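Page 37, top half.
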Amino acid sequence: MFNQVSAELTQAYEALQARVASLTEELAIANGELRRQFEEKEALSERLSSLLDALPAGVVLLDSSASVVAANPAAMAMFGADMVGRHWGDVARACLEPTLTVGEWLLGEGRVSIAESLLASAGGKILLIHDVTTAHRMKAELERNQRLAAMGEMAASLAHQLRTPLAAALLHTSNLGRPGVPDEVRARFSEKASGQLRRLERLIQDVLLFARGESIGRDVMAAGELLAETAQTMEPLMREHGLEFVVVDACEGAEIVGSRKALFGALVNLLENALQATPAGGKICLTGNRRGDLLAIAVRDSGPGITRETQARIFEPFFTTKGQGTGLGLAIALGVARAHGGAIELFSEPGVGAEFVMTLPIGLAESGMEEHG
């Protein structure tokens, strides 16, 4: 029995030795694989680090509390080498100023765009910062060249529009010097001459405004107040033309940033166009609605509508369907909306009226800094 047990123990020991040898071999293979994977990851990490260092765009890594954990050299060149460890909100407030374009900020003498992405595993964010100074300058130059090109193409039309009221004013003023003209006739000639000169002045102002582009300010205004001011100005004209004028304020206290004068002028222009297109007894609605981060201001009329052919050219400079129009009103209004980061859309079907909708971003001066804070 002893010999039998001894033999069994010897066999078990030999099997155990074989198993240990097998496990040792497997462990060596696993260690080699782990070492290979580690070396590959280390090489990949070095390549990624070199890529981030060479990347012209800034990359900033934030932790879950919005503190800067890491930044590449391009980001440090923008915000300073001491940004690591600081709260991103402090860095943004010290270096960035908001603009009227969503996602774009002023940084010193330049302009940057900031895009962010959530890091689900770490609970933080990664920010990608591009320098868009050159692109913004080229865009502004392109818009200016387009305005100048449009003026050059329509110079003949403009000269004709200037010549007509000027000739009429000269004719009326020449009648003032005729002997024996009664005082009431002389007064009528004087009023007609003044009217033509005022028309000339309005035309020249429109041309200068279109050529120069609207200067956008930093006024912070309540959208409801802007609607009310516009309605108060236009209501007497609507009543004089026998039109029903309805104002609906659903702005929910929204505020917009920009030029109050420019936006007011654009809305008045849209309402004047609606007034001229709507026959007596018709209806014009001015509405303001908040749509998330956007404000939609709509001008809807019950006029004859706008044909498809006219809709395709309605915002072109100097295009007009009115005998007394300059064709610059809608082009200027669209320029104002775009300068504020918004747009104007037209919805119309012939025979059922037209609706112009101006969309504008809400409160960029405040909401943008809070978002990056």
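Page 37, bottom half:
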Amino acid sequence: MSLFITSLNSGSNGNCYYIGNEREAILVDAGISCREIEKRLLRLELSVKKIKAIFISHEHSDHIRGVQVLARKYQLPVYITQRTLISGRLQIEETLVNEFKAYQNVTIGQLTITPFPKFHDASDPHSFIVSGNGVNIGVLTDIGSVCKHVIDNFKLCHAVFLEANYDEKMLEEGDYPFYLKGRIRGGHGHLSNHQALELFTKHKANYLSHVLLSHLSKENNSPQLAEQLFQQHAGNTRVVVASRDSETEVFIIKANGKTEMPDKKIVVNEKRETLHLNKQISLF
């Protein structure tokens, strides 16, 4: 019993995360273009036809840039709060818009999506737990501070997309104006490497098999720095840096915390379509 996950892009230039089973999948956010989403799925040999819905975390452009075209082209339902829809000025067919509320589960085939609130400088921001086949996947990015909602949901995860946005020293010594530095580290912006690490070390489940460090700042962080910091405390958890320039490989997350090697073939639908997971995508 497993779920398949990949980051199609992660960073201030666009965020898009894929979570699915053998028959259906969802996207959390669509912050890159429809064309780029299609290209990256094709390179991973994941069928766009398996995507059954898009869930939007908040209205910032790096999370919604591609949603209008993608939803219209494939007639995909978009799950979004009313405040986020208005704040994002999104023009989506009324029949495709579905409102969600915190802790009210949404069922998409055999997947269950649980939204929960978080601190971020947006109108109505949420993160998500995506569950299926006994596996819980967390999408915990764009978090200003670690609140009880974040802790309680992080504890459930078999794998997680976890924000590690900035290194404190790099941000302090960098060229960003004072107001922007304050926005980033002010409790409604983003998590630093050490804030994310504290959440990880204090609250991770013993079955957490993968942490995908996400939404790294181009100017105020380094993939090598973030990865090295987490590797020191990873134990049996695999640490991956989600790239701001390309997709990651597809990870197969199992309920027992173990994973299959990504070079195996898996039957992914009733027609025995074969998904080849033998690609190694550069993260940097």
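Margin note: The mean pLDDT is 91.
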